[in-house]
Specification:
Layout (H helix, E strand, L loop, with lengths): L5 E6 L7 H14 L4 E6 L1 H8 L3 H18 L7 E4 L5 H11 L3 H4 L3 H12 L6 H4 L1 H10 L5 E4 L4 H18 L7 E4 L28 H9 L24 H9 L3 H13 L4 H28 L1 H30 L5
Parallel strand pairs: 1-2, 2-3, 4-5
The structure holds tryptophan.
Length: 338
């Protein structure tokens, strides 16, 4: 049996996970854990980059994210859940990689540029730690020598940079790192319930994995069904537009009853179903989808010590590998003095 290929991917612990996380990432991860040896990273260093004023949120979220991961079905027997800052080798390799990274190339990273512009528009100052995070992310990926990195579209430049720094290291010091590849999910990005491009806590357009049926119902009742404002629908008899309609994007993504979705689309286009009914069916579908997640979540919430054990065990598993990689790095670079 050839050894399984490795995956490393991660999330920032800055709040509860929502349907966008599920579709853009978790759904993919759950599949992949059967075929790959997976490391799922809770990137708390990275969260400090723009949430340093709220360490309490980061602390709560580390446990919360792990709880959500378990609730959706990530299996700690198969996969390691890792707390980034508990493996100090992440910081060590980041230091070496920062030496190998030309400043002008780093400044061109489009995702970093967009995020920096966003923070500046909110009058937040940019720390060197934040500016450095793509380098630290390359270290995250290469420490366990991951081959594959399942991520959202916006993260692809970081994976390209990771290949770059791996290539540069290998050329200078000999083959230590594999060349990781990015893999983007089925639905790279779920629109918010208000139709905005992204689901996000700050936009108040989220459905959380931990939401109860009533919260889901309230959110969907106020869902926007006409994003451009060009297809207003005043009555159920007005012919409606299905394309780019958030209600139908969500039906497509989460309703397990494909016949119902096809029928609703037909009736919507013909003007024989109300927005209200489309939304009620969607509420039912999403609650059907969330129910088993809620049930599992309730158990983990009552057993936080179990969740902590999962985190510590996974972290230890990665740390052993990380230490090995750092030995190889030092040997390859000849950073050995005694
Ligand atoms: N930057 C990623 C995000 O915001 C999180 C992350 C941290 C990550 N380290 C990683 C993703 C390593 C993939 C690989 O979602």
């Amino acid at each position: 049996m050839p050894e399984k290929q490795r995956i490393l991917t991660g999330m920032r612990p800055t709040g509860q996970l929502h349907l966008g996380h599920y579709l853009g990432a978790l759904e993919n991860w759950i599949q992949m854990q059967h075929e790959y040896e997976c490391f799922f990273l809770i990137a708390d260093y990275q969260a400090m980059g723009d949430h340093l004023d709220d360490i309490g949120l980061i602390r709560r979220s580390v446990l919360e994210v792990a709880t959500d991961w378990l609730a959706v079905g990530l299996d700690p027997e198969k996969s390691a859940f890792v707390i980034q800052s508990y493996v100090p080798e992440h910081a060590e390799l980041t230091m070496y990689f920062s030496m190998l990274t030309p400043l002008n190339q780093h400044q061109k990273n489009p995702t970093l540029r967009a995020e920096t512009a966003q923070l500046e528009s909110e009058h937040q100052s940019i720390s060197l730690g934040f500016f450095n995070y793509p380098i630290s992310q390359a270290a995250d990926i290469l420490l366990p020598k991951a081959h594959l990195v399942p991520v959202g579209e916006d993260q692809v430049p970081h994976i390209e940079y990771t290949r770059d720094v791996a290539r540069r290291f290998n050329r200078l010091y000999g083959d230590v790192f594999p060349m990781p590849r990015a893999r983007v999910g089925r639905v790279p990005r779920l629109v918010g319930t208000d139709g905005q491009a992204k689901m996000s806590k700050s936009l108040n357009n989220t459905i959380y994995l931990a939401d109860d049926p009533e919260a889901v119902s309230n959110r969907i009742r106020r869902m926007v069904t006409d994003v451009t404002g060009e297809n207003p629908r005043l009555r159920a008899t007005d012919p409606g537009v299905v394309d780019y309609n958030p209600a139908f994007l969500y039906h497509d993504a989460f309703n397990d009853d494909a016949d119902e979705v096809a029928e609703l689309k037909e009736r919507y286009t013909a003007g024989t179903v109300s927005d209200r009914e489309v939304k009620e069916r969607l509420t039912e579908a999403i609650n059907r989808f969330l129910e088993p997640i809620r049930e599992r979540r309730a158990w983990y919430e009552e057993h936080p010590d179990y969740v902590r054990d999962v985190l510590l065990a996974g972290t230890q598993r990665e740390r052993a590998i990380a230490q090995q990689t750092m030995d190889e790095v030092r040997q390859a670079m000849q950073v050995v003095y005694t």
